[in-house]
Each structure stands twice: as C-alpha cells, then as structure tokens.
Specification:
alpha/beta, Rossmann fold, four-stranded mixed β-sheet, globular, Carboxylic ester hydrolase, Lipase_GDXG_HIS_AS
Length: 480
C-alpha cells in the first residue's frame, strides 16, 4: 500500500483504488466487482470487471441499482432504504471498511442488504461499518441488481441474476480481500430480509462452495422462493404491461425508467397455483426462482461445511401494519382473509394461532400470521435442515427488543435488530416517535451484546451460546 496526500491507496488485481482514513480504520467505496450491467447486459450473468488505469477514486459512494421510492407510512425508513435510485452505470460495486489495508488477515464479513428484492443499497445509513472495523473485522457491503433486471424470470436470460451478482461479489472477495487486510479463508456472509433470503440460498448453491466459511441469516425465508409457475405469472404480467414479448431480447432495449413505471401493475398478483401459495404474502412480486426451496436443498451446496447463525424478530409483521395505521383497525375478517391467502387450511392455522396467543387482538394475530409465513416458518425449516447435516454448527436466536416508535406500537418489528448488529443504536437519527427505534434511548449494553455476538461468530464460529438442537429447539433470546 502507498499513500498520496495522506489518503490510503490499495493495489487490487483490477487496479489501484484510493480510500479515506477515519477513526475506525480505512474506507474504500464504489469498487466495481463486475462490469456495468447496461442494455442487454442487464439480463446477462455478471461479466468480469475489465479493470482501470491509474488510481480509482474510492472516496465517494457508488450509484445504486434502479429502484422505486418506498414509503412506509408514518415511519421514517430512510436509514434502511438509503437514497433510492442514484443513476449511474457502475452500481455492481462494494464498499470496504477495514482496520487497515495491510497483511493482517482479519475476519471478513460480507453484508447483503434487504429491500424486498426491489429496493436498497449499501449506501443506507444503517450499514455503517465503523464498529466492525473498530473491532478488527473487514466489512464488505454489496450492491446487486434489483427488480426486473435482477429477478424477473425471462426466457433467454439466466434466472436469479441478483443472486449471481452476490456470488460474483464473493469471488471478488476471495481474489481481492487480502489486499484490504482480510482473510479470504475466513469469510462470513450475512444478510437481512431479502438479503438474508439470498444469503440462505447460497447455502444450497453448488457454485458457492469454498467462497465462505460462515453465514448469518437475519429475518430471511428459507422457503421464500417462487416456483417456476409462479415466476411465469409475474413475467407474463410484466410483458403485458410493457406490451412486448416475454423474452430477454424484447426486454433488452427498454429503459430502466419504464421497468420502474410498471411495478404497480405487478403488485398484488395472484400467485396461488393450487399446490403452492405466495411465500411473500403479496409483499413483493420478485423473489428467487427455484424448483426446490433452499431449506430443502442444503445438501446440494456448501451448507454442511458452513457455520450458520439464524433467527427472527418476535413481531416481524408489525412493520407492515403499524406504520400504515392498520394494526388497530384490523378485524377478524381481515385475519381470515390473510390466512386464506397464505394457507390451504386457514381455519386450522387461525385456531392454532389463537391457542398460542389467546390475548392477541385481531391486528396482533394478523401480524403474527405475516411473521410466521414470511420469516419464522422458513427460518425454522432451514435451521432444522442445517443442524441435521452440519452437526453442532447451527445457532438460532430470537430478537425481542421492542422499539418505542409510533406511540410504542412498532415493537420488535422487522429491521429493528439492525442498529444493534451494526452497533449504531445510539445515533440521533434513529430516535424520535417516527424513527426506527422510537424516542426512548436504546437499552444499555444491548448493541454491544448483539454486535459482539456477530463478531464472535465471524471470528470463531460460536456466538456465545449453545448450538441448536432440533430435538429440543430453543432460540437464544436477545433483547427480550
């Protein structure tokens, strides 16, 4: 490594990149791990980055994948979604936050953001890597293709292109991270929500073998993939809205703005095939497209040789009901409608929920149904499957800290664990009645405990509690 005007410069296989020093280490931004996906290339596998001459400026953030604006009602989710679409070609890029770009061979953590396969980027404020670098870890945050370019299943194009992007980023880490002080043999991939679903899918992907040693799945869905028939319905609807044939060739000349404009036409599609229900409960028209759910195909990938930390929040569904003001207005009829959409035997499911939660209001039952379908069921299935093939290498958690946002109603909703994982829960922009953690200060020590468990897992493979036993399935309570 050399320096210029006190800024650190790292030599990578693709070329030199200049970063900045901060109080926790060094930060390098907007490093492309693949060629820019433009035109027909948006529907092709990620292509190798051709490299560059001179020293690349890594002091400013990259563009972001084309994406629509997201509104979560009364709750300010800007720290989660980031700036939205920042146009530019080279958005298949990573940011690296490291203690130092030396020969330290430190643990590496690669974060895959969420956003329903439609939104999000590594520019979101929540994904500040300062605490990881401070604590001796090299953090890599990844952008990937979203929406139609990333996940629409099209004849003439490989499926799951957003997942292929993450795979390409992991190959970049394998080949490059030692230049940033990281150990390419000690890589932990972790993701949240859609990013966690992608991360879980890597466990069942043969091409992922050897690219990482550990995985953390935060509020993902090991059974959240669309079947090919379900994906075909989304593709047909998109082609009809665009007025073109459902082929990659026909989609190639269409500008990204047009893809974003038709997204409302894809919302709420009926994906019930008679044998398969919508695993995302209508919340996104995009997901992975697989013939077998990842939780049922772990033996095909690296899962048996990989440590897994996996879990959910206790009130995941609140994010989709409280900010919109419908938690309290939900009726028993609304709960039955949702159960009918999600389950072949809705009466039995509701009866079980009422036994388990006898004091719940209709809104709370609705939230519990969403949480169970979107996150808890698939998480349990993946934990059990992994424990069967990996021995004592599965760890399960349940995060229960209740945000006091929106009059104390948001609770332990989807995304609330993230400020604690990144150890930024004391940031003022997360506090206030309409902000993610509410007006109350974060509990003393919770961020240090959660962040420390993630660091320990990435370093040693053990987060600090007993491994999961499928015969006595108990999740470690965090923040309860």
């Amino acid at each position: 490594m050399s320096s210029f005007q006190s800024d650190p410069v790292v030599e990578t296989p693709a070329g030199a990149v200049r970063g900045v020093r901060d109080g926790s280490g060094e930060r390098y931004r907007a490093i492309p791990y693949a060629a820019a996906p433009t035109g027909a290339g948006r529907f092709a596998p990620p292509a190798p980055q051709p490299g560059w001459a001179g020293v690349r400026d890594g002091t400013r953030p990259s563009p972001t994948a084309p994406q629509p604006a997201r509104d979560f009602g009364l709750l300010d989710m800007t720290p989660y979604f980031g700036p939205g679409w920042v146009p530019g070609e080279e958005y298949l890029a990573v940011d690296v936050h490291t203690p130092a770009a030396d020969d330290g061979r430190r643990p590496v953590m690669v974060f895959v953001h969420g956003g329903g396969f439609v939104t999000g980027s590594n520019r979101a404020a929540l994904y500040d890597g300062s605490a990881f670098a401070r604590d001796g870890v090299v953090l890599v945050t990844v952008n990937y293709r979203l929406g139609i370019p990333g996940f629409l299943d099209l004849p003439g194009a490989p499926p799951n292109r957003g997942l292929l992007d993450v795979l390409a980023a992991l190959r970049w880490v394998r080949d490059t991270i030692s230049a940033f002080g990281g150990d390419p043999t000690n890589v932990t991939v972790f993701g949240q929500s859609a990013g966690a679903t992608l991360t879980g899918a890597l466990l069942a992907l043969p091409e992922a073998k050897g690219l990482f040693r550990r995985t953390i799945v935060q509020s993902g869905n090991g059974t959240g993939a669309f079947s090919p028939e379900q994906a075909h319905r989304v593709t047909a609807a998109a082609a009809a809205a665009l007025g073109v044939e459902a082929t990659a060739e026909a989609f190639a000349p269409i500008p990204d703005e047009r893809f974003l404009a038709i997204l409302p036409a894809l919302a709420g599609l009926d994906l019930d095939t008679g044998t398969t229900r919508d695993p995302l409960a209508g919340l996104s028209p995009f997901s992975l497209v697989l013939p077998v759910q990842p939780a049922d195909a772990l033996a095909d990938g690296p899962a048996g040789d990989v440590d897994l930390l996996i879990g959910t929040n206790t009130e995941e569904g609140h994010l989709y009901l409280v900010p919109q003001g419908v938690l309290d207005s939900t009726t028993q009829a609304d709960v039955l409608t949702l159960a009918t959409r999600l389950h072949a035997d809705p009466d039995a499911v509701l009866a079980a929920q009422r036994v388990a939660r006898p004091d719940h209001t209709p809104g709370e039952l609705r939230s519990a149904l969403l949480g169970h379908t979107l996150f808890e069921s698939g998480t349990k299935r993946m934990a059990q499957a992994h424990a069967r093939i990996s021995g004592d290498r599965t760890y399960v958690y349940s995060f229960g800290y209740r945000s006091t946002a929106l009059g104390g109603r948001l609770g332990a909703a989807h995304t609330v664990e993230l400020p604690f994982v990144f150890d930024i829960a004391d940031k003022p922009w997360l506090h206030g009645d309409t902000r993610m953690l509410g007006p109350d200060p974060a509990p003393a020590g919770l961020a240090a405990h959660l962040h420390g468990a993630w660091i320990a897992f990435a370093t040693t493979g053990a987060p600090g509690w007993a491994a999961y036993d499928p015969r006595h399935p108990v999740a470690e309570p965090l923040g309860h």
